Amino acid sequence: MRLVYVAMTCKAAKPVTDPEVVNSALRWADHEHGALEHARIHMSRTGACAVLFINSRAPADAQDYCRKLVIQALDGEPALAGWSLSECTPLPSL
After folding, report:
1. What does the alpha-carbon distance between residue 51 and residue 88 come to, in Å, rounded to a whole number?
2. How many angstroms separate the Cα of 48 from the Cα of each of 8, 18, 61?
3. How far apart are CA 15 and CA 42, in angstroms?
4. Residue 84: CATH number of its domain
5. 30 is in which domain, residue-wise?
6. Is the pTM of this model over 0.90?
7. Number of domains forming the structure of the chain
8. Edge-to-edge strand order for the sheet containing 2-10?
9. Phi/psi of residue 48, each to 5°?
10. pLDDT in tens for each of the 94 residues of the chain?
């Protein structure tokens, strides 16, 4: 299990404030691989930050997967139009 910190920024005039919108988009994007175990999401006026729990052996693989996952989730959810991935950093193992 690997933890990856991601930050997403919103340039829309009225940002999404419900973390379930982001969570659902991430789950949809992960439906083929099933590597996303859990997502802890914090919303703000300028976007969201999250820690994603990824089923992966290598930190670099988890980071690469998270980049692709978040970009696909943002592209696939109309409510998140105008959002972008601004950071994707693996966290140290516990």
Report:
1. 10
2. 5, 10, 23
3. 13
4. 3.30.70.3400
5. 2-90
6. yes
7. 1
8. 36-44, 47-54, 2-10, 83-90
9. -155, 155
10. 999 999 999 987 777 889 999 999 999 999 999 999 999 999 998 999 999 999 998 989 999 999 999 999 999 999 999 999 999 999 997 6
